[in-house]
Amino acid sequence: MTLSLSTPDFLIERNRDRCINCQVCVRQCANEAHIWDEEEQRVKSDDALCVDCQRCVTLCPTHALTIRKYPLEFRENANWSANAIKAIYKQAESGGILLTGMGNDQPYPIFWDHLLLNASQVTNPSIDPLREPMELKTFLGRKPEKLMVQDGKLVEEMPPQLELEVPIMFSAMSYGSISLNAIKSLAAAAEKTGIMYNTGEGGLHKDLYKYGKNTIVQVASGRFGVHPQYLEAGAAIEIKIGQGAKPGIGGHLPGEKVGLEVSQTRMIPEGTDAISPAPHHDIYSIEDLRQLIYSLKEATQYRKPVGVKIAAVHNIAAIASGIARAGADIIAIDGFRGGTGAAPLRTRDNVGLPIELALAAVDSRLREEGIRNQVSLVIGGSIRNSADIVKAIALGADAVYIGTAALISLGCHLCQKCNTGKCNWGIATQNPLLVKRLNPEIGAERAANLISAWEHEIKELLGGMGINAIESLRGNRLMLRGIGLSDRELSILGVMSAGE
Amino acid sequence: MSVLNAKGVYYRELNRQIRAQFASGVEEVRVQNVNGQRYIGDGISGSQRLILEGTPGNDLAAYMDGLELIVEGNAQDAMANTMNKGRIIVHGHAGDTVGYAMRGGEIYIRDSVGYRVGIHMKEYLDRVPAIVIGGTGGEFFGEYMAGGVLMLLGLGLADAAPIVGSYCGTGMHGGVMYIRGEVEEYKLGKEVKSVSLTAEDEEKIQHYVSEYVRYFGGDAAQILARPFNKLIPANKRPYGDLYCAW
Ligand code: SF4
Ligand code: SF4
User: Fold this and answer.
1) What is the CATH number of the domain that holds A231?
2) Which of A131, A363, A446, B1 suits A261 as a labelling partner, its CA being 20 to 30 A distant?
3) How far apart are CA B141 and CA B167, in angstroms?
């Protein structure tokens, strides 16, 4: 075997004064970074195996453990960062494509942090959400051009709508990429809070059919587990074209993660790779997309909204316009910080657009073309808190998808190793010993708490602006000002500069 | 049996009528003057029979779950998209992407098919979908195939005329193709290999050929007289060692 030039990323520090050799860390670390040395009768560690998931740190009863960045410093070089060098060592050793998990972690600008919200002073009273009603209810789906009422009733039938108590949904995460307990947590939290979760492209596990009215079922290029009963099971259908972490790339669930239940849900043999081709091979144009949208509408007799999820890429405004015209009821746009169970590193970190710019561009374009009413816009790709949501709505979103934030609420520590299947938090794994670490009841409680907390915060922020219904904020870019942005960026975002 | 006339009827209305017929308990529906209406039979579950006279449009029998569908004419593109169960018999040609991601049921096509037929077909437990084609197949035949059976008979083909297009079985990682005649090496995707037939294969081939003959006529013995080429994935995990962990 050739010598590996890879060095550890993290340093495990064990405070020997505190360590009682209880071996909790040994049992907790699926990466086997902690080892019980029988001879010496004490716990040891191998730094090279640690991924900094913080599991052992959190569970160590005496707080004996600290994880640090490995203090090995390459000679300072502004061009060749430690990661740039390490990547080459790994590829020189393996000849492989670098694979990683979660979202783009590079220091690109975060436009949310360059947008400031407004508040009322004197000329327009602010509203106290604790005393006054505040409406966050959101309907997703095509809205008619105009409403005609006769005898107190709508003349034309309303196109099908998704009803949300809060403009937040859990984004698509497939069974396979995350554990059944993680999905159960999100499904139950969605039910509790009156929102939706999304199956992702891995089919619908039999235990999850009961959450149907809070479910968006996804149809992706691999069509795993897609059949009439599945299409009927959810409140809406989403065609997945792409995702922010890997625009233009398909999915690939390795055979190791296709155990009995994943196999039953995806309807493929156990242990086989589940490959989702990069494109849907029946969609090479907007016209073809229209055909898939209408095939789904026909199959479900026009009773469910059909959405299309795409990654934010350079020509996003024109693409979104095409999708609206193709008959989608909802367009979901995933920004380049969106998470994933596995993606090639170079794609994750270099392809796509910040969701803020994509959202503003799409909303403006659909308005200019007079078709904004035809489609609802849902955005995702790193919504971190309720302020991001309020800013997104003011930029023109109807609702947001949260994926990474939802997983963090379940205990994810963003170690970015979802692709390895060894998630110590029981989320991105199919190993039954790890999966059972995540109790779906507790998970549901935590995820639901997050939604309720954000709901309160959104109401506070709205009240501060003197707005009592989220509808009045939607696309209301006057409530935003940019700070530290170029004129060009301000014009794409369609907001004035702070101070204006 | 009930008879519907599709002349001048928009697809949405036609499909509504077909569903209504089945919902009312009719076991066999014959639709006359079908002329390009899309999505016929989409997402319908049940074991009834649907007979179409004419040329149905794209996405015929998408997500279909059980029907027996007979086309007395040609079928267009994307027939049997993600089909789950059932049987389709086409007395003519069919277009591109027949049986995309199909996971169950059988399709018999009397004549030829277009590009990308049988892409990402899968199988699961007792569901082994099959597409049997009397004529030739276009390029990307069986691309990404993950399960099931694809069969090309090349009937009436002039000597040395190609039976299938290039990139046959690219990305194939499951299932089997039986092609009656030779496929030039250069046409095969690099994930595919040609192997010799087993007794079990012979049996399967006989079964599908006899079904074909049952629907469209012909001489099974004569068809079987010409050797079949069996194509399977060279590797069940074509992308198994493509990656290294960051
Ligand atoms: S991988 Fe996680 S559990 Fe293992 S040593 Fe590192 S921080 Fe602790
Ligand atoms: S889901 Fe698990 S593996 Fe993925 S980043 Fe979070 S803690 Fe790490």
Assistant:
1) 3.20.20.70
2) A446
3) 7
Which tokens go with A135? 């409406």
Looking at residue A2, its pLDDT comes to 63
Report CA A304 to chain centroid distance, whole Å: 23
Give the torsion through C-alpha atoms of A462, A466, A469, A473, to 10 deg. Answer: -70
Shared domain check, A286 and A161:
yes
Q: Which residue, judged by its Cα, is nearest atom 4 of ligand 2? A: A418
Q: Which residues are registered as beta bridge partners of A99?
A: A344, B245
Residues A352 and A450 in one domain: yes
pTM of the model: 0.95
Ligand nearest to the CA of A178: 2
Same domain (yes/no): A353, A410: yes
Q: Are residues A162 and A61 in the same domain?
A: no
Asked if A329 and A160 touch (Cβ cutoff 8 Å), the reply is yes
A74 lies in which domain range?
Answer: 10-96
The residues spanned by each domain of chain B are 2-236
Has residue A462 been placed in a domain? Answer: yes
DSSP string, A378-441: EEES---SHHHHHHHHHHT-SEEEESHHHHHHHT----S-GGGT--TTSSS---HHHHTTS-HH
Question: Do A90 and A148 have their domain in common?
Answer: no
Nearest CA to A256 out of A330, A156, A176, A138 is that of A176
Rounded Cα distance between A396 and B179, Å, is 54
Binding site members of A for [4Fe-4S] cluster: 19, 22, 25, 29, 50, 53, 56, 60
Helix %, strand %, coil % for chain B, to 5? 15, 30, 55
Q: Is residue A198 part of a domain?
A: yes
| Residue of A174, A178, A412, A431 best suited for mutating to test ligand 2, as the one with most atoms within 8 Å of CB | A412
The residue behind tokens 């308005």 is A367
Q: Is residue A164 part of a domain?
A: yes
Are the beta carbons of B54 and B40 closer than 8 angstroms? no
CA neighbor of B53 nearest in space, from B38, B31, B79: B31
Distance (Å) from the alpha carbon of B110 to chain A's nearest alpha carbon: 23
Cα(A417) to centroid(ligand 2), Å = 6
Q: Name the percent of chain A lying above pLDDT 70.
A: 100
* Residues A81 and A160 grouped into a single domain: no
Using 50 as the pLDDT threshold, list the residues of chain B that sit under it: none
Domain boundary among A96, A118, A150: A96
Is residue A361 domain-resident?
yes
- State the virtual CA torsion across B185, B189, B191, B193 in degrees, nearest 10: -30
Please report the number of interchain residue pairs, chain A to chain B, with beta-carbon separation below 8 angstroms: 142
Residue B11 C-beta-side C-alpha neighbours within 13 Å: 21
- Ligand 1, atom 8: closest residue by C-alpha: A56
Choose the mutation target among A291, A340, A422 for the interface with B, i.e. most B CBs under 10 Å.
A291
As a whole number, mean pLDDT of residues A366-378 equals 98
Say yes or no: domain B2-236 is CATH 3.90.226.10. Answer: no
Collect all residues of chain B within an 8 Å Cβ-Cβ radius of residue A221. Answer: 120
Claim to verify: residue A59 and residue A168 sit in the same structural domain: no
Number of domains in chain A: 2
pLDDT tens digits, A416-431: 999 999 999 999 999 9
CA distances from A148 to A153, A157, A163, A476, B149 (A): 8, 10, 22, 26, 54
Tokens of A290: 């229209």
Ligand in nearest proximity to the CA of A419? 2
Q: Indicate if A266 and A148 belong to the same structural domain.
A: yes
